[in-house]
Specification:
- It contains one helix and 16 strands.
- The chain has 241 residues and is mainly β.
- It has two domains: 110 residues, Beta Barrel (Lipocalin); 107 residues, Lipocalin (Beta Barrel), CATH 2.40.128.
- The protein has an eight-stranded antiparallel beta sheet. Strands 12-11-10-9-16-15-14-13 form an eight-stranded antiparallel beta sheet, with no helix packed on it.
- The chain starts with 15 loop residues before the first helix and ends with a strand.
Length: 241
């Protein structure tokens, strides 16, 4: 039935974020850069998951996010922070393709020269379906190589539980904290609360994900060995290893 103005009923506009949401594969199968992107969104954030060329399997960059409102101009500004480099990117849509223009800035004092790149991607699948726990999964390294606290972490899951494994700074080798766990459903708020019990202290931690893809750990060490040591709080940021 017409709408009284001589035309059919209009369709609601497609949100800008929805236009990006898909699985994208680099149009150049021989690329040495980013091979694949998976973009999804919810009511408040748009999440960008990238993979880079590595051997024998591609390197998982993890997932960064930006507010949905940031897509209103048709461009997604994205930043990934790793232990050795920072990636700043602009994602735009060119017809049926996704364009990623980025700059790599090395932060590891290796002397490598920063460089820029541009890649085009073809849509090869729907937007990914992920659980709220997925962005936490993987191996993480403290962004501060001189830390005296936690040096690295590894997070895995099964259908019901998230497992967090950490190592603390020790000499000559790091101290293995072992593994603690929390229900998988606890990640629904994008924050994990975990607890470690040792013979001499109890450590409580809150783990959150930063927009640039890093893992933020805020902790409190409460000493229980009657040593008189004062409780200590700390904050550390981790990049994907």
């Amino acid at each position: 039935m017409g709408n009284g103005n001589g035309g059919g009923s209009s369709q609601p506009p497609v949100p800008a974020a929805a236009k990006f949401a898909a699985t994208w594969t680099n149009a150049d199968p021989n690329t040495l850069g980013i091979t694949k992107a998976a973009i999804r969104f919810d009511a408040s954030q748009i999440y960008i998951h990238l993979w880079g060329k590595c051997s024998p399997t591609d390197c998982d960059w993890g997932e960064a996010y930006v507010p949905v409102a940031d897509t209103s101009g048709g461009t997604l500004p994205v930043k990934f922070v790793f232990s050795f480099a920072e990636e700043t990117q602009q994602l735009t849509l060119l017809g049926d393709q996704l364009k990623i223009a980025g700059t790599t800035h090395y932060t590891d004092n290796s002397g490598r020269t920063d460089y820029s790149y541009t890649d085009l991607f073809n849509k090869t699948g729907p937007a990914p379906t992920r659980t709220s726990a997925d962005p936490f999964l993987g191996s993480w390294t403290n962004s501060n190589p001189n830390t005296n606290d936690i040096t690295h972490a590894a997070i895995r899951s099964d259908p019901a539980t998230l497992y967090v494994h950490m190592w603390g700074k020790c000499s000559p080798t790091d101290c293995d904290w072992g593994e603690t766990s929390t229900p998988l459903s606890s990640a629904n708020s994008a924050t994990l609360s975990i607890r470690w019990v040792f013979s001499f202290k109890v450590v409580t931690q809150t783990l959150t994900l930063l927009p640039d893809g890093r893992l933020h750990v805020q902790g409190l060490a409460h000493y229980t060995d009657n040593s008189g040591r004062v409780d200590r709080s700390y904050t550390d940021d981790f990049s994907r290893a």
